[in-house]
Amino acid sequence: MKRLMLGNEAVARGAYEAGVTVVSSYPGTPSTEITENIVKYDDIYVEWAPNEKVAAEVAAGASIAGARAMSCMKHVGLNVMADPVFTASYTGVNGGLVLCVADDQGMHSSQNEQDSRHYAQAAKIAMLEPSDSGECKEFTKKAYELSEEYDTPVFIRLSTRVSHSQSLVEEEEKCGYALRDYKKDPGKYVMTPANAVKRHAAVEERIKALTKFAETTDLNRIEDNGKKIGVIAAGITYMYAKEALGNEANFLKLGMIYPLPEKLIKDFAKKCDIVYVIEELDPIIENHCRAIGVSVKGKDAFTLLGEYTPAMIKKAVTGEEPEEPLRAEEPVPVRPPVMCAGCPHRGTYYVLKKLGLTVTGDIGCYTLGSAPPLECLDTTICMGASVGVSHGMAKARGEEFAKNTVAVIGDSTFIHSGITGLIDIVYNKGVSTVLILDNSITGMTGHQDNPTTGYTIRGEKTRQVNLITLCRGVGVDNVVVCDPFDVKELERVIKEETAKAEPSVIIVQRPCALLKSVKYTGHCEITDKCRKCKVCMKLGCPAITVKDGEMFIDVTQCNGCGLCVNVCPFGAIEKE
Amino acid sequence: MNIMIVGVGGQGTLLASRILGRVATKSGYDVKISEVHGMSQRGGSVVTYVKYGEKIYSPIIGEGEADIILAFELLEAYRALPYLKKGGTMIVNTQRMDPMPVITGAAKYPDNIEEKLARSVDLITADALAAAAEAGNIRAANVVLIGLLAKSTEVEKDVWLDTIRRTVPPRFLEVNLKAFELGYGM
C-alpha cells in the first residue's frame, strides 16, 4: 500500500529495508527527521552524536565492522564531518556506508546556502539526488548496493523541498542483510602515508568505474518527447521543470550527480537545438557539460541564489510571463520568527540588552535574540563559534573590551563544539565569560535529547554530562548557575563574572517552555497600576502588545511564565 | 487542486495539512505536501502547500495558482493574497496576531483586512477560536478550520472524520471531533 511520507521519513524507510543496523547523526534542519524516523525501527541501533564529525566516525566504524551504516546531517554539518569523510573515501567500506546531506536552498533555517555537491567532487564520493519521497526510499537502497559494489561511501543529497515534502511511497519488505565478516586489513583501514598512496590510486580507479556506471544506470534517464528544447536537471528542480514544461521539452533526469556521465549527456544534447541545465545554487552540472564540450544555457539564464520555482523556469525557457496576480492594497508587515512566549532565553537577553554588552552568538533558538526589540547579538557564524570569536575579540581589543563581552551558546551547541573554544580560553590565558543557555534540550530542530539531558534518542535514561563539572574539569574556576527569569540575580552575576580577569562560565538554566515537563499555568494580566512605561515591551514577548494605547496581554499566546511580572517596575502585572 | 495553508508558527497548520493530505490520498489522488520546519516555525509566518490530482510534480504552489487558501490569521491571509487563483476561495480565521514589527511600532497592522479581501476574492470568514473554545480547547481552532474547508471540497464528510480519528492522539479526539463538526456546520 502507498503511504504519504516526508522525504526524510522515506530515507529512513529505505535504510530499514536495506538492512541498516547502525545510524549516528547530529540534528540539523532540514535533515533531522531522517534519524528521528529511524527510531521507529527497533532492530536499528540509532543515536544522537555530540556532533557530525563523531557521527561520521561512528558510522564509518560500523561500516568497517561489517554493518550497513548511515549518518545524516544538514549541509553545514557536512563541514564538521568533512575530515573523516575525505579519508573514508580512501578506506572505502566493508558494510555499505551512506551519508545523507540535506541542503537548505533559500536558507529557511540556516546561516548559509552552500552547495554540498562540491563535497562529492572534492572527496571523490558518489552522490545520488532523489526528486521525491518515492525516490528517497529507492535511492537509499540503491546507495547501499553501490557502496558495497564499488567499495565507497555514498552521499544522498537532499534539499528542504525534498526532505520536507510528503509524497506517496510504496513500503516493501526488509532485505535479509547479514553482518559481513570483519578481518584486520591495515592496508585498507590504516591511512598512514604508505597505505594512503595506494588507496588514492584505488579511489581514482573507482571514480573511473563509477563514471562508466553513470552512462548506463537507470538512475539517469532520458525522456525523449521529440522536442527541440532539452533540459538537464536533478532533484527538486527536475520536478519544477516537469511542472513548468511538461512534455514540451526533452529531459535528461540525473539521479546520480557525481560522477556525471559524458556520453549520455552528449547523446542527449545532439538531439536538441538548445539545452538548459536547471540546477539551484552552483553550476556543477553546467561546468561539467562545458568541460566535455557540450554547449548549454545555465547560470546565464538562472540565478545562483535561493530556490527556483516552476514559474521562474517557464519564464526563462519559454519567455512566457505569468499573469499579474492579486495584490494587497498596502505593504504587509513581515512576521519574522520570534522566541516563543515563556522562552527562557528572553530573560537572558533582557539583561544583556540592559547591560549593553557585546554578545557573540551561536546557532540555536537563541539566535533569535538578534531581532528587535532585543537586538543583542554582535556575531553569529557557525556551531560553537561564539566562544572562539569572543576570545579572539578579547585578544584583539584587550581586557577592558573582554569585560564588556560575553559569548552565548546553547547546551547542545556547547557540547557540539563550544567546549573546545572554552579549552582554548583556559589554555591561552583568556578572560572571557561564556553563558551556556541550558534549556535542557536541543530546541530549534524540534526537541532532541543530547548528552546533557540524561536521555538517549529512544528516551532511555543514560549517564548525563554535567556541565558544571565539565567546565571545572577543563580549568574554569568560576562556574555559576543562574535562573534567567530571576533577572536581578542574573544581572548581578553577569556584572560580577565579566569584571573578573579570569575565564567564567555562567550556566543560565531553565527548560524550554515547549517541553512537556514544563507546566506553566494560567496567564498574566496588566492591572490598573500600569503607568505605560513599556518596560514589559522590551522583552519582545509575542503575547504583550499595545491595544488602543494600553498595554495588553493576549491570553491565547500567554502561557503564564511570569517573566513580565518579574520585570515590571510598578508591580502592575499579575498572574491569574 | 492546489490548497495553501497559511498561519503563524505554533497554530497547528502542519496538522491541518497532514489531515488534508491523508484525505486526498484516501480519495485516490496523487498527493504532494510541502511543509516548513525549523526556525520559521518559531512564531513566524508559516506556509504549507497541499496539492492533489492525477499526477503532481512540484510540491510548491506559485503566485496565482492556489484554488483555496486556508488562513489561520488575518494578516497571513492578506500576505497570501497573490497566491490565490483569480476566482479562488479564501477561508479565513478572523483572529489577529500582531507580528513583532507591529508590537515594536516599526510597522502598522493593516486596517479592515476582511473588507479588502472581500473586494477581490470569494471570502469565507470564521471565528475559529470561539468555536474551538466551545468545543473545549482553543488549541483545536485548526480543526474547526479543517471542518470549514471540508465543506468546500467534494470529499465525503465520513472520510474527513475517519482521517481525524486516525491522525489526532486519542486524548484530544473528542474535542477535535466536536471542533470539526462546529467548523463543518458554519
Description:
Chain A is of the alpha/beta class and 576 residues long. Chain A has 20 helices and 23 strands. Chain B has a single domain, classed as Pyruvate-ferredoxin oxidoreductase, PFOR, domain III (Pyruvate-ferredoxin Oxidoreductase, domain 3, 3-Layer(aba) Sandwich). Chain B is 42% helix and 23% strand. Chain B is built from eight helices and six strands, in the order βαβββαβααβαααα. Chain B has a six-stranded mixed β-sheet, with helices on both faces. In chain B, α1 packs across α7. The two termini of chain B are 23 Å apart. The chains are: A alpha/beta (576), B alpha/beta (186). Chains A and B meet through β1, β8, α10 and β21 of A and α1, β2, α2 and α3 of B.
User: How many individual domains of chain A?
Assistant: 4
| Average predicted local confidence, pLDDT of chain A | 97
How many strands, what sense, and barrel or not for the largest sheet of chain B? 6 strands, mixed
Q: Which regions of chain B have little confidence, pLDDT < 50, spanning 5+ residues?
A: none
Spatially, the strands of the biggest sheet of chain A line up as 3-2-4-5-7-6-12
Radius of gyration of chain B: 16 Å
Biggest interface goes to: A-B, 61 and 60 residues
Task: Please provide a brief summary of the model.
With 576 residues, chain A is of the alpha/beta class. Chain A has 20 helices and 23 strands.
Brief descriptors of the model:
heterodimer; A: 576 residues; alpha/beta; Rossmann fold; 4 domains; seven-stranded mixed beta sheet; six-stranded parallel beta sheet; globular; B: 186 residues; Pyruvate-ferredoxin Oxidoreductase, domain 3; six-stranded mixed beta sheet; 8 helices
List the helices and strands and how they pair.
The complex is a heterodimer of chains A (576) and B (186).
Chain A: E1 2-6, H1 7-17, E2 22-25, H2 32-38, E3 45-48, H3 52-64, E4 69-74, H4 75-91, E5 97-103, H5 117-123, E6 126-128, H6 133-149, E7 154-159, H7 160-163, E8 165-170, H8 186-189, H9 193-216, E9 220-223, E10 229-234, H10 235-245, E11 250-254, E12 256-258, H11 263-270, E13 274-278, H12 284-291, H13 310-318, H14 345-355, E14 358-360, E15 377-379, H15 385-397, H16 399-402, E16 405-410, H17 411-427, E17 433-438, H18 467-473, E18 478-482, H19 487-499, E19 504-509, E20 524-526, E21 544-547, E22 550-553, H20 563-567, E23 573-575
Parallel strand pairs in A: 2-3, 2-4, 4-5, 5-7, 6-7, 10-11, 10-13, 14-15, 14-16, 16-17, 17-19, 18-19
Antiparallel strand pairs in A: 1-8, 6-12, 9-11, 20-23, 21-22
Helix pairs in contact in A: 1-2, 1-6, 3-4, 10-13, 14-19, 15-17
Chain B: E1 2-8, H1 13-26, E2 30-34, E3 45-53, E4 66-71, H2 74-80, E5 84-93, H3 100-103, H4 113-120, E6 122-126, H5 128-135, H6 141-151, H7 157-167, H8 170-184
Parallel strand pairs in B: 1-4, 4-5, 5-6
Antiparallel strand pairs in B: 1-3, 2-3
Helix pairs in contact in B: 1-6, 1-7, 5-6, 5-8, 6-8
